[in-house]
Amino acid sequence: MLKFFAVIFFGLLPCLASADVSVRDDSGSVVRLARPAQRIITLAPHLVETVFAAGAGSQLVGTVEYSSFPEEVKKVPRVGGYSRLDLEAVVALKPDLVIAWQSGNSPAHVEKLRQLGLPIYISQPNRIEDIASEIERIGVLAGTTKIASSAAKSFLTRLTGLQTRYGGRPTVRTFYQVWHQPLKTIGRTQIISNVIRMCGGENVFGNLDVMAPEVTVEAVLAANPEVIIASGMGEARPEWLDEWKLRTGLIAAQRQNLFFIPPDLIQRHTPRLLDGAEQLCRHLETARTKRPSGAAR
């Protein structure tokens, strides 16, 4: 009898190893693989971080320019930039899963890869908690569910702590500046708007549906935010952030509430977003302490 069950069990092993896996991506499409992915390509820098968080970093065979974290990813081959992919390089790496960025990659490029028969997972987490869900889903596709589930749980625990600490604090009207020429900010659906709300802030352009709208200096002056936060392009505070000091009518300028957060911590949809969120929450709390006695804002 034992021999019989052993034959049955070991006979099933090949089937178990090749059992298909499937998840629904952020576009609503079902991504189904015949077996967990072993050759993954990511088409945006932030997606690399999510793959590593899900425990699948060793399965990454290609990514795009500016993928810089964690350190190991610097050795991974590049397939162009997220907005100018080298499709031939992608195909040459023979991926069994391509993870694309819905609002960053060219739809035409993604569709071409799909037509070539490559499995595509579309990523677009617009809420902070969506990052945890994405870690779990990539873990399913990569066969690293245990690691991914643990990482997602840790992320949500930390997120809950921030929500509890800052969610009920007095509202701070906030302008988030992506760039200065042209002057760009974030709209309602951008994940940073979600961070601002979590910290007890209000995005002064949160009524705009465009993900990264252009605005005018006059519109910012009219909104008169209490806080201005910028990230720029690198680890250094952008010089143009301090140009708002010349606008002496701005509450943010009057109270010196001009803050910087490194872009990798706040503009990437990754687990490190909570590091940026902590900084943003602290900046808004600093602004609250600068309010004149009895002032609402």
Q: Overview of this structure, please?
A:
Keywords: Signal. The chain has 297 residues and is an alpha/beta fold. It folds into 2 domains: 144 residues, Rossmann fold (3-Layer(aba) Sandwich), CATH 3.40.50.1980; 123 residues, Rossmann fold (3-Layer(aba) Sandwich), CATH 3.40.50. It contains 11 helices and 14 strands. Helix 4 links the parallel strand 7 and strand 8. Helix 5 packs antiparallel against helix 6 and helix 6 runs parallel beside helix 11.
CATH architecture of the largest domain: 3-Layer(aba) Sandwich
Mean pLDDT: 91
CATH superfamily of the largest domain: Nitrogenase molybdenum iron protein domain
Quick one: how many beta strands?
Answer: 14
Poorly predicted tracts of residues: 1-17
The whole-angstrom Rg is: 22 Å
Gap from first CA to last CA = 78 Å
CATH uppermost class of the largest domain: Alpha Beta
Strand residue content: 15-25%
What is the name of the CATH topology of the largest domain? Rossmann fold
